[in-house]
Amino acid sequence: MTAEPVIDEQATPAAALPATVRASLSPSRAADFKTCPLLYRFRSIDRLPERPTVEQARGTLVHAVLERLFDLPAGGRTPDAAGGLVAPQWDRLVTEQPELAGLFDPGDEAGTAEFLRSAAGLLEGYFAVEDPRRLEPAERESLISAVVDEQLLIRGYLDRLDVAPDGALRVVDYKTGGAPREAFEARALFQLKFYALVLWRTRGVVPRVLRLLYLKDAEVCDYSPDAEELLRFERTVVALWQAIEQATERQDFRPRPSRLCDWCSHQAHCPTFGGTPPPFPDRSAAADPLRDARSGPAAPGADE
Ligand code: SF4
Fold first, then answer.
1. PD-(D/E)XK endonuclease-like domain: which residues (predicted)?
2. Ligand 1 neighbourhood includes 270 CB (under 6 angstroms)
3. In angstroms, what is the span from residue 22 Cα to ligand 1's centroid?
4. Is the CB–ligand 1 distance for residue 261 below 6 Å?
5. Measured from the CA of 35, which atom of ligand 1 is nearest?
6. DSSP letter at 154?
7. CA distance linking residue 31 with residue 10, whole number of Å
8. Most buried among 61, 139, 155, 281, by the most CB within 10 A?
9. According to the model, what pLDDT value does residue 289 have?
10. Could you read off the pLDDT of 254-289 as tens digits, one per residue?
11. Is the pLDDT assigned to residue 290 strictly greater than 50?
């Protein structure tokens, strides 16, 4: 094993982790490798920049609005209240991530207004499938983590966790992308099982429901895992991590073309499309190859 110590101090103080932990893996990066090893390399090792798209920005905005919505008293969580959060949340996001401002030409007020309206449209999809006045989430946008196989820290951000009075857990993930759902459903479920595994390992409870809320289609997709399945999934995650390490050691990340290539930002560097990958970074420069890159907008086409 060649993983470097890549512990996210903000998520889990290194001092609180067993000394055996040597690497971390997020569902996004694990799913990248599963989808296409070369995509994983471009994102996690080469760190090639990906310009945010309007669709990604809309997803980030809608997630932000839904998170803030639950700050309001239950009775106030109405469609109007959600609509009223859209513009202020966009202003906040642009302040925090100035690159988002570049999505629209300066002075393109009509384009910005249309964008904000489209985000409000997704929120209508949300209200068609849930009534937030009847919900009291236990956690929102919370970072959860667990150690598996003694050496691997797995971690990720939950959109929402609901806890029933009997202690049953429901993991909820909002999907805002406009891409065909079937192209990304396996990836979305992989992500949710990842969270379920973390919760099971840390709280001793298998989540009763893993819920995908497709806001564009106003549809709910529920899945109920069991412990045996999560055990198998854990082995899959560990095997994936070992495969990532082996590929890193050999500097061998192959393209795996699929429908998802249509949403890939790196076709220009991909041999499948006639491109050439950049030289493999030297290991010191490529340190932290397993760190989650979730610092900008969520990546539709990846997680959306
Ligand atoms: S274009 Fe397709 S094959 Fe190439 S890196 Fe992206 S996802 Fe992989």
1. 24-271
2. yes
3. 28
4. yes
5. 7
6. E
7. 23
8. 61
9. 41
10. 999 998 899 899 999 999 999 999 999 986 554 454
11. no
| Ligand 1 centre distance from Cα of residue 46 (Å) | 14
Ligand 1 neighbour 271 (Cβ under 6 A): no
Q: What's the Cα-to-Cα distance from 24 to each of 28, 39, 149, 165, rounded to whole Å?
A: 12, 18, 12, 33
This prediction's pTM: 0.85
- Residue 63's pLDDT band, with cuts at 50, 70 and 90, is very high
Helix boundaries (H) for 21-108:
27-35, 37-40, 54-69, 79-96
Residue 157 pairs in a beta bridge with 143
Given this model, what pLDDT does residue 141 score? 93
In the chain, where the domains are located: 18-46+137-273, 54-133
Within 8 A by CB and 6+ apart from 138, the residues are 161, 162, 163
- Fold designation for 18-46+137-273: Lambda Exonuclease; Chain A (3.90.320)
Per-state percent for the chain, helix, strand, coil, to nearest 5: 50, 15, 40
Q: Using DSSP, state whether 210 is helix, strand or coil.
A: strand
Dihedral over alpha carbons 281, 285, 287, 289 (to 10 degrees): -30
* Helix (H/G/I), strand (E/B), else coil: 4: coil
Q: Quote the CA–CA distance of 156 and 28 in Å, as a whole number.
A: 8
Q: Which of 10-14, 25-29, 300-304 is predicted most confidently? A: 25-29
